[in-house]
Amino acid sequence: MNRSRNPLLICLLTALLAAAGCAPAGEAENAADHPRTIRVPQDARTIGAAVERARPGDMVLISPGTYHETVRVPTDRIVLRGTDRNRVVIDGQGKRHNGIVVTGSGVAVENLTVRDHLLNGVLVTGMASQDGQGLARGSNGYERLDPKEFPPLDGFRVSYVTSARNGLYGIYAFNAQNGLLDHNHTSGGADSGLYVGQCKPCNVVVTDNVAEYNAVGYEGTNASENMWVLRNRFTHNRVGMTVDSDYLEAFVPQHNSVVAGNLIADNAEPQTPQQADGGFGIGIGIAGGQHNIVRNNRIENNPRAGLVLMSSEDVPPIGNTIDSNAFGGNALDVAHAASGRAPGRGNCLKDNTLSTTAPEQLATQYRCPVAADGPVMESVAPPTTPAAPAGIPFRTVPEPPAQPQLPGGADAPVRDATHLPGTVDADNVPVPGRDLLAEHTRGAR
């Protein structure tokens, strides 16, 4: 029996669907094709509430203000953007653990400030508990986390973010692949300003960042294969940067990263937090790292050593190439300090500007090319002078200077963090000048 449609009934049903947050199928499909911008606080009172409403492809756009919340981003392909990098502040007040925790793939965080958290400013990780809490080294008592149980996060970007006074890491990518950390400023990190850990292959680029007044500027722990650290300024930390193997994370040994075109200078700053390992006065430390390339960097005025090759427990430094770097003003330019338990071999130097090495004949005796399985290299004791001064509490590190905005600001094109890092030309990165990114620093005190 044919029944005519009742227009009143259709209207009532449509109204009920709208009230319940539903929409007819055609309208729902149309909405899914058009990513939305959810504004804070105009459309959602908190950043977390806006993220909960967001669908893949949406942007959460945050107006200036100080936000006292931990922001968790479990949804894929969200863009989390501040309208003003220096005035959108996620403030941990010295009592919340993390500022932003990203566990969704393809998420971009950009143009804002995170400060004063007990652990991390921004944590990007493929490891998350059932309640959405990000898990990473340091967040769980240093229990070793299994990437087979937690597959790595696929795709991330942290750009034009300022991280200040965070008690573990400023910007931290752990068990995450296919990403980009660029144009960030980190200071006051009680462990390191920037950290990439437990990835193989990483497919990660760390570029055009400033890390100063941290315990360590940058750490790459068990970060291997297609891992590039390019054109950064690591100055006025206790240690400029480290590349290392560590059994507290998966994928030992660390291997096959490229460190090129960075300024690594003046890393003996007493007005910094003291890292647990107590490092001080070193530009680059390679501890148990293998088959890495350190090329075209400017490494200056580090009062213990410019670059030290060391062992990490039973993991030796093997097959690292130190090529075409400009050393100057260091107590030692390069030192080979592998232990008798894990002696180094196959490391080599070529075309560097050098004054001093330890052992003294290091540059000539181990000039590239050297076979990675070559004879054991002579070692010296790691440099220990000058003595490391006591550190300062991380929350007492002064404010960083105002930092440049994301080009285009709030109106910049919305780009999620997929298909990264793109083409990388690490072979043609030149030796930088002393002025690399100097306009974005506090400078010497």
UniProtKB/TrEMBL annotation:
Q: Which residue range or ranges hold the Periplasmic copper-binding protein NosD beta helix domain?
A: 165-339
The organism's place on the tree of life at top rank: Bacteria
Do you know which Pfam families this protein is assigned to? Answer: NosD
**Region annotation Disordered: where it falls in the sequence:** 393-445
Q: Which UniProt keywords apply?
A: Signal
| Gene3D superfamilies referenced in this protein's UniProt entry, alphabetically | Single-stranded right-handed beta-helix, Pectin lyase-like (2.160.20.10)
Matching entries from InterPro entries are given as: NosD_dom (IPR007742), PbH1 (IPR006626), Pectin_lyas_fold (IPR012334), Pectin_lyase_fold/virulence (IPR011050)
Which protein is depicted?
Answer: Nitrous oxide reductase family maturation protein NosD
Signal peptide residues are 1-25
| Composition skew (Basic and acidic residues), residue ranges | 436-445
